[in-house]
Design goal:
By secondary structure, this protein is α/β, with parallel strands linked by helices. It has 14 helices and 18 strands. Strands 7, 8, 9, 10, 11, 12, 14, 15, 16 and 18 form a ten-stranded mixed beta sheet that branches. 42% of the residues are buried. Bound molecules: NADP nicotinamide-adenine-dinucleotide phosphate (NAP).
């Protein structure tokens, strides 16, 4: 039986769990691939940190780059997680040395995936990153293999479990964003130190960029695109959405419109009876529209060591079975750039919430500004607070393009009766 030498760099939340899985499942791996695995090197910053397994000091490297000089490696896992720096160096060095790479690192792949995939192809080794998008859901392999001959037009879904948990909990408990965020941090669903990259949409956008590349056989886009997070969503918005038969979800969406690429991440009002509205808590879901397959839905745990390790192990077995292929499904030489769809032209219904002084004339000032920008109102709700002499005005518009909506919002900036920047949520 052929012996395969494995190295694992990064023993944090993911690497720690993965190491245990590799040790526990050696027999299963042998059975399924006919290969015997030997973990010959591990690396993390701190050799003395308590892990789920006993550290064999002989295998431990404080500097992961030393592994390449001292050991013969066939497959390496990069589980450090930086978009550049040591993560990029490990992956680059491995590929140049004809070592297969497996990583859950979406930050690295969404930034350097084009370059690294070229390097992998040149050296005839794999670069696998199933775990970088939607945790345990095998969405990348589904696009690359299961749906290989389909023409995909649109992929969207809930790609960030932290945000989905917070929005679901705010609805269920009526608590504020900050209270629920604190609980999410305690439960390990949100990063304790700096959860910003989850909350502001950056994490979901990195995943959308990887999904677009695979779905549309294109290079990873670098263009600036619409990215809004959930930090400004208030319990009030969730309550009002509920009364209007909607739920608020942070969606990542990528689609081709007239052969132009439209990628975006933002909170959406989704109908309560839609599939996506009923994906709750830390769950992720990806919906894919392809021809001839039609609509396909994949749902599962989008993060956490168990789900992520499951995806890493699937990459591992794929390599052990000899499935060497292009990292993005087609040769890097054939992947083109696609120009971006003009966001200003994007048109849909919008939800606006204004916090205003409850005075005569304020409502008409708002509706007049809407009329000035040709935005027609479909529904209007006014919720007065007599005690404070303030009111919330909620407006749902008919289809409105982004350019008009943005110009209209500018008109409110100088209005002293409008107490804060209006909240805007797009309907989906
Ligand atoms: N956590 C999730 O649920 C999840 C889900 C999907 C994908 N991912 C991805 O998985 C990757 C790892 O995430 P994580 O949550 O496991 O991160 P983490 O807990 O912060 O672990 C990072 C690990 O890298 C080690 N490390 C840092 N700098 C190093 C260096 N210079 N040399 C060697 N080792 C170094 C750390 O060592 P010490 O332990 O000694 O500090 C730690 O073990 C990221 O790309 C993340 O995006 C995570």
């Amino acid at each position: 039986m052929k012996k395969i030498n494995v190295a694992l760099v990064g023993l944090g939340q993911i690497g720690n769990y993965l190491m245990n899985e590799l040790n526990k499942k050696k027999k299963d791996i042998e059975l399924k691939t006919g290969k015997k695995i030997d973990i010959v090197a591990i690396s993390a910053k701190n050799p003395n940190k308590k892990r789920l397994f006993k550290i064999n000091k002989k295998l431990f490297y404080k500097n992961p780059l030393e592994i390449f000089k001292q050991k013969k490696i066939d497959i390496i896992f990069e589980c450090v997680g930086l978009s550049d720096g040591i993560s990029k160096k490990i992956v680059e060095t491995a590929l140049k040395n004809k070592i297969h790479v497996i990583t859950p690192n979406k930050a690295l792949i969404s930034k350097h995936g084009d370059y690294l995939s070229k390097l992998a192809e040149k050296n005839k080794v794999n670069l696998e990153f199933e775990a970088s998008v939607a945790g345990g859901i095998p969405i990348l392999r589904t696009i690359k293999e299961g749906l290989a001959t389909n023409k995909i037009n649109k992929v969207y879904g809930i790609l960030n479990g932290t945000c989905n948990y917070i929005l679901s909990e705010m609805e269920a408990t009526k608590e504020t964003f900050l209270n629920v965020l604190t609980r999410a941090q305690k439960l390990g669903y949100a990063e304790p130190g700096n959860p910003k990259l989850d909350l502001n949409g950056y994490d979901a956008l990195a995943k959308i960029r990887i999904l677009s590349s695979l779905s549309f056989n294109k290079n990873i886009s670098k263009q600036k695109c619409l990215m809004e997070g959930i930090e400004n969503i208030e319990s009030k918005d969730i309550d009002i959405a509920d009364q209007l038969n909607f739920r608020i979800k942070l969606l990542g969406i990528t689609e081709l419109i007239n052969n132009k690429l439209f990628e975006r991440v933002h909170p959406c009002l989704v109908k309560k009876n839609s599939y996506i509205a009923n994906v709750s808590g830390v769950m992720n879901a990806v919906i894919l529209e392809g021809s001839p397959v039609g609509e396909s839905v994949l749902q599962g745990e989008g993060a956490g060591p168990g789900a992520t390790s499951s995806a890493l192990m699937s990459d591992f077995l794929s390599i052990l079975r000899g499935n060497i292929k292009f990292p993005f499904g087609v040769s890097s030489k054939k992947r083109k750039s696609i120009s971006s769809y003009d966001l200003n032209k994007y048109s849909n219904s919008l939800y606006f919430r204004f916090e205003v002084n409850d005075k005569p004339g304020v409502l008409s000032q708002i509706t007049q500004s809407f009329a000035k920008r040709n935005i027609s109102v479909e529904r209007l709700i006014q919720i007065p607070d007599h005690k404070s002499k303030k009111a919330s005005i909620i407006i749902i518009t008919h289809k409105t393009n982004e350019l008009d909506a943005n110009r209209c919002l500018k008109l409110f900036k100088t209005n002293k009766n409008i107490l804060k920047i209006p909240t805007r949520i797009r309907l989906f």
